[in-house]
Fold this protein.
Amino acid sequence: MIDRLVGVVLSLLALLAGPSYAQDYPNRPIRVVVGPGPDIVARVFGAKMGELLGQPIVVEPRPGAGGVIAAQTVAAAAPDGYTLLLVSVANTVNATLYERLNFDFIRDIAPVAGLIRGPLVMVLNPSVPTNTVPEFIAYAKANPGINIASAGNGTPGHMASELFQLSTGLDLADVPYRGGARALLDLLSGHVQVMFDNLPTSLEYIRAGKLRPLAVTTAARSDALPDLPTVSEFVPGYEVSSWFGIGVPRNAPPEVVDKLNTEINAGLADPKLKAQLMDLGTTALLGSPADFRKLIVEETQKWGEVVRAAKIKPE
């Protein structure tokens, strides 16, 4: 399932080398620097390179320090439109999580466009005897020491967990992993009891009855699981989403930013793509560079407050 989601994201980036571009840009390969994420990211890009029209897009994995190294690489690159950053929630968390960075993400990375946005889902191992968010809150208060897994400190699932605990007064035992696959495996086997996971990753296990979903984390319910409530229906004001977008080094030519934004939004508007995204429980993150900047600024402020309140430190 996650392969399909990442494939959709990276297929959108392939549009950047398509024939609808002006002849003067691009005229050489474009690299997209990618921080932590599924290994499928690099493999999907490599598989698609031979299919691209025009100049190839080359993925450059820079997984270290929770996305800091990837962002730092792009911040220091030439602002010519040939080095892009796959932006995610992690970048907005890292601005506060890491006390000493030699770049300022909001200042040094120019937003180009959003790609996709979707919910996380609060899922339990079926051995936990609760079926709703209120039941889980009551059970966790009566049974201290419940383990909650995440893909690592500062990841969307970890931040969703910390925000949930701050909002409900719970004190769960955080169990960070180095990546979501191992965390999900231990949740399925019962070594940990609960997790906030990306919906596309957990969806097949939910449908097979191997995980019990309690709620999605976005403000609105998901079309993929329309009967599943949101966390905010029980915890007012709670909202978390996982999203991706594209950024470039600051001072990139405005005409290049505009071209990239136009092409990405055109791809996102494709009806077939919209249907694929809906099936995965995600939606297109359409908008202008200014819209994407607004999201980045808001998320940076929001997660900064959570990092400080929960006293989260890098791994």
The chain has two domains: 2-118+242-310, 119-233. Residues 119-233 form a domain with the D-Maltodextrin-Binding Protein; domain 2 fold (CATH 3.40.190.10). The chain has twelve helices and ten strands. The two ends are 28 Å apart (CA to CA).
